[in-house]
Specification:
With about 280 residues, the protein is α+β, with helices and mostly antiparallel strands. The chain has helices spanning about 95-105, 125-140, 140-165, 165-175, 180-190, 195-205, 210-220, 225-240, 245-250, 260-270, 275, and strands spanning about 5, 20-25, 30-35, 40-45, 50, 55-60, 65-70, 70-80, 85-90, 120. Helix 2 packs antiparallel against helix 3 and helix 6 (about 195-205) packs across helix 7.
Length: about 280
């Protein structure tokens, strides 16, 4: 699967600080590798969306919207019941975000050692009207869109920090340069997600060979063996504490069929899942 760079792939002027794009498709995508060269709002109108970053993942329907930090992510888009997927995208650069923070003299009022790359919010009446206004602006000439886009960017940002706090803004511009911490966080946050080594390496911005080498250095075993053990441990928890059946959980813990799950479980615990529950 090819990697898509946004907003470049949408034929937008990448030199612009803020850009609006009305996105519509009738094709689903699953865990598409995306490089966001700018931060982005995704106001979902039809369909559902899942986004996985190295430090967080979120699934939403059309009652919510996202703010995403620039970087590598995996994106899934599912169609609505009428086979459409529609969203309004608002791209913005770090430079315009710095400019906004300085203009209004904002400070980070919520100290945290960890910043997420993605945030999700519910629609309210203000946001619904805001999205409608973006749709209207997207139909205007490019010259007028450029003039209005920065005004709309300030409008939504001022509203969000009024309703929430400024930490949302600072999470988009503050970088965590600890490569070891970023690597282990990516691995451990995604231990139950059914991601391939290629997808995990992409989230870490590494080649597959470098990812494997780093993995064995940190965890002293191969990625395949480590992830299998973590998923079987989760299966053990579901069987014993949630009283789930093998037939209910085998796919959730990463197995394509029930027999292969039972065989792997027995190999680790020397007893079948059914016997373990008894």
């Amino acid at each position: 699967m090819n990697t898509i760079q946004l907003p470049n792939a949408l034929d937008l002027e990448t030199s612009q600080a803020v850009q609006i794009y009305h996105y519509r498709t009738s094709k689903e995508i699953s865990k598409q590798q995306i490089i966001l060269n700018q931060n982005a709002f995704s106001f979902l109108i039809e369909g559902s969306k899942e986004v996985i970053f190295n430090n967080s993942s979120i699934s939403i329907d059309n009652h919510r919207f996202l703010i995403m930090k620039s970087g590598h992510c995996l994106m899934t888009e599912k169609l609505s019941e009428i086979k459409n997927y529609t969203s309004i995208l608002l791209f913005f650069t770090n430079e315009i975000l710095f400019k906004f923070i300085q203009k209004f003299g904002l400070t980070n009022n919520k100290l945290s050692s960890e910043y997420k790359s993605i945030h999700s919010f519910k629609y309210d009446e203000f946001i619904k009207r805001f999205v409608d206004s973006l749709i209207d602006i997207s139909k205007l000439s490019k010259t007028t869109q450029i003039k209005l886009a920065e005004i709309k960017f300030e409008e939504i940002m001022l509203y969000l920090i009024e309703k929430h706090d400024t930490s949302i803004l600072f999470s988009l511009i503050l970088h965590n340069d600890n490569l070891t911490q970023n690597f282990t966080r990516t691995v451990e946050r995604n231990q139950l997600n059914k991601l391939s080594l290629k997808q995990l390496a992409f989230l870490c911005n590494m080649s597959i060979s470098t990812f494997k080498r780093e993995f064995e250095k940190h965890y002293s075993e191969s990625p395949i063996k480590w992830f299998q053990n973590k998923r079987l441990e989760h299966a053990h928890y579901l069987l014993n504490h949630k009283q789930k059946k093998s037939s209910e959980i085998y796919f959730e813990v990463g197995y394509e069929n029930l027999s292969s799950f039972i065989q792997a479980y027995k190999s680790k615990y020397h007893i079948t899942p059914k016997q373990h529950q008894k």
